[in-house]
Amino acid sequence: MKEIFPEADVLKLKEPAGGYETSFFIKGGPPVLREWNARRLDNWLLLPHEDFRKTSMGSITLNVDLRSSHEEIHQAVAYGIRQCLRLNPDLRKRSVQWVFKPHGRIRKELAYSLEWLWNGLRSLPYENAVVAEAIAFCIALDRLGFTAAQHWEERLSIVRRFIPQAHEVGFGSWEGSGTKAYVDFDRLSQAIRPDTKKYLLPKYHEHAFNAYFLLQVCTNHRRIFKFDKFANIFAEQIAPIQVLSRRSACHFSPARLSGFGLG
Q1: Considering only 97-106, 137-146, 160-169, 248-257, which range has the smallest mean pLDDT?
Q2: What is the pLDDT of residue 13?
Q3: In a shared domain, residues 110 and 91
Q4: This prediction's pTM
Q5: Which of 80, 145, 149, 255 might form a disulfide with 44, Cβ 3.0–4.6 angstroms?
């Protein structure tokens, strides 16, 4: 780069120690919540070994007209998958293809995204309702044109038809892979630890439950968010957007993230 642009300045960006800006917090900052301890999250870190012949189940048909509005599709798909999981407790041990009646087989791109999402979530300890919501959100966003959109700005406008307070976030895991998605910042703010205020300097107390502010001054999500609430948001909103975006990296377990901040 110096040979091509000899006058260019070299900027070295370094994450602050501990993942937070010390000028906004009292000494030591907010400690990592105990619920993020790796020993408490063993089930979120497991990588199960599966025999393909025993795992593959074929297809399951849901009675959902994909020509309906995105709200109707979202409601119908979430209900249908909850019922399937209730009637077949072992379903999450299987890799399935989702077919919709009367529409029949769906576009190859959406089918691939749904398969990726289902297989990414089913082995993790999410509640059945959370998995159903994730798949329903994925299909509803596709119905609004998210998959066909070419630019992130266009995709954000589509997401905001569903989630008015959606903003872009970026995140990565310990091995170096990273990606981005969109998330409801109103809901993300509800996942903030209840004692945040006591770790902020007094002049920033008014921002104690503002996720947008906190993610500007702290990229260590383990210091800010309650695990269970954060995990459900990650599955229901962030995971579907990742698979529809078809980027090279896709994360399904929040326990594997090394950082989380504004995109």
Answers
A1: 97-106
A2: 63
A3: yes
A4: 0.89
A5: 255
Cα 182 to chain center, whole Å? 8
Residues 170 and 240 in one domain: yes
Backbone dihedral region for residue 58 (phi beyond 0: left; psi -120 to 50: alpha; all else: beta): left
User: 109: number of CA atoms within 13 Å, CB side?
Assistant: 12
Range of the domain at 83: 52-143
pLDDT in tens, 34-75: 999 988 999 999 887 877 767 777 788 888 888 899 999 999
Helix axes 128-143, 70-87, angle to 10 degrees: 150
Domain membership flag for residue 1: no
